[in-house]
Amino acid sequence: MQVRFQQEFLYDVKADIQRLLQMHWEEIALNKDHIKLNPDWNAYENLEESGRLKIFTARSGETLVGYFVVLVGNNIHYKDHLFAVNDVIYLEPEYRKGMTGFRLIKAAEKWLKDDGVSVLSINTKVHKPFDLLLERLGFNLIERVYSKRLKDT
Predict the structure, then answer these.
(1) What is the DSSP track for 92-125?
(2) What is the DSSP string of 13-62?
(3) Contact at 8 Å (CB) between 53 and 71?
(4) Which positions ≥6 away from 90 have C-beta within 8 Å?
(5) 124 vs 129: CA distance, rounded Å
(6) Percentage of the chain with pLDDT > 70?
(7) What is the pLDDT of residue 149?
(8) 90 closest CA partner among 122, 44, 42
(9) Rounded to a whole number, what is the largest CA-CA distance in the chain?
(10) What is the C-alpha separation between 101 and 129, in angstroms, rounded?
(11) Can you tell me whether residue 138 is helix, strand or coil?
């Protein structure tokens, strides 16, 4: 399957992404009984309007098969540098074999570097890691994050 990678805007992908977002949530979300998928599309639109949201996609023909979304901004500790922090990354399961994920991230890296980004951070779920891919791409493990649900509803 021929897959092409591009940077797209929210209005280009919003309708297409719904199916993948649901698949993504079902596969990796924790606390599903208490925390339902409900994206704040207005916040995403505002982030994109301010230049802080970048959406990179993988398409087979016209079908969206993957996405990599990052938030870009200055880090409060390093104001001279732009940092891109992964918001979400997902590939349909049949596209995870081979080089599709590798190529999606490499394409995003190129576009982010061209935009002046100094550092790209990607987080993974402990129960669905893809550390080997990130290590092959030259990423380093730099931090651990712990989470605890505080509210029952």
Answers:
(1) -GGGSSTTHHHHHHHHHHHHHHHTTEEEEE---B
(2) HHHHHHHHHHHHHHHH-S-TTT------HHHHHHHHHTT-EEEEEEEETT
(3) yes
(4) 20, 21, 23, 24, 66, 67
(5) 6
(6) 99
(7) 87
(8) 122
(9) 45
(10) 13
(11) coil
| Contact criterion met (CB below 8 Å) for 38 and 32 | no
More confident residue, 149 or 133: 133
User: How far is 132 from 130, CA to CA, in rounded Å?
Assistant: 6
Residue 1 pLDDT greater than 70, yes or no: no
Tokens representing residue 72 in the block: 């870009």
End-to-end CA distance of the chain: 43
Amino acid at 133: L
By residue count, the chain amounts to: 153
The pTM assigned to this predicted structure is 0.93
The answer to whether the beta carbons of residues 20 and 67 sit under 8 Å apart is yes
Residues contacting residue 30 through CB under 8 Å, at least 6 positions apart:
147, 149
Which amino acid, 87?
D
Residue 131 CB contacts under 8 Å (≥ 6 apart), including other chains: 124, 141
Tokens of 92: 């349909």
